[in-house]
Amino acid sequence: xxxxxxxxxxxxxxxxxxxxxxxxxxxxxxxxxYQDSDLNNLLNNGGIMLxxxxxxxxxxxxxxxxxxxxxxxxxxxxxTFFPYADKDTAVCEYxxxxxxxxxxxxxxxxxxxxxxxxxxxxxxxxxxxxxLENQASLSFFFKRGFRLVYVKRDFEIDFGxxxxxxxxx
Length: 169
Prior knowledge:
Blueprint: E1 2-6, H1 11-21, H2 36-44, E2 48-54, E3 57-65, H3 68-78, E4 90-99, H4 108-119, E5 124-131, H5 135-143, E6 147-154, E7 157-165
């Protein structure tokens, strides 16, 4: 398995991977698919997306979104009850985690996460937005030191906002 940083030239392959793999999810409602403009913005405007490859084919993806407007929204939410992120710290979403159906439960997402930690800014708070029914995702994030700081109900679904400081334990 190889891991590489993706850019806008990978857009069509990334979009095709998501569209194909979402059909193999047991609970499709747990995955919020990127809109074309979101994915384009992430790959073209400073976000970081990593891809795991086997024999030249994408087998997994994950990303950190540095969008400043979204960062402000996330910061407001995670600071609702307690000021977790100070005024100088950006809150960036860790998102887009998807693994090919034939490679699930083989550590691909974990390896992508570990590699992302080596290339992202260290002075941010990572935020994962997870449906609280999605036990697999919650387990993944809790094992990596994320903590639940806010719950918001939208579309009859409870979303948990989990954060992790990159410069603190």
